[in-house]
Write the structure tokens for this entry.
Amino acid sequence: MNGFNRLIMLILALLLIAIPVLLLLIGFGVLPANQVNLYTNYRGGLGVLGGITIADFEDLTVKLVVGIVVALLTLLAGYLLLRELTFGRRLSRRALLEEEPGWETAITATAVRHLVEGAARETGANSPTCRLASDKNRYEVGCDIRVPASGNFTEISANSSANIRRVLEDQQVPLKDVEVTVQGTASQG
């Protein structure tokens, strides 16, 4: 997702959360209503909303639909906001492999993840799942694997770690650490 789309989603999420919070702050007297109205003319919008009365919603179905729409808008705002805010470790979307002006070469995080999963499969690991984190433009790689029932957990884990490190270093991907975790045996289905 490009930066413009992310910006629009973040603004939408903040508006869906900020407007009700602003109205609550005005309603509880935390913010002076006259001063806020001077800048936002919120009373005009409230006048339109004030024209809607509970008598307009006599039917239970209409009340239920309005309640569902409000709940969905609230969930959408929370989802959009949490999706754009990053908690925990940051992930660099791409890393520069060559920094020579005019010859810059970059690799995306998705490409690094595919390289890691392919390197783990080469050593006999099944169902590799990769996690990436960035620390000063170097990747910290975590890979969860499953081992065939007849395989040696320790050997496949160590081989996967070494192969992941080798593949990423061959591709000149800046690497900090590789951690491979065996999640269990692979299903036979």
Notes: The two ends are 35 Å apart (CA to CA). The mean pLDDT is 79.
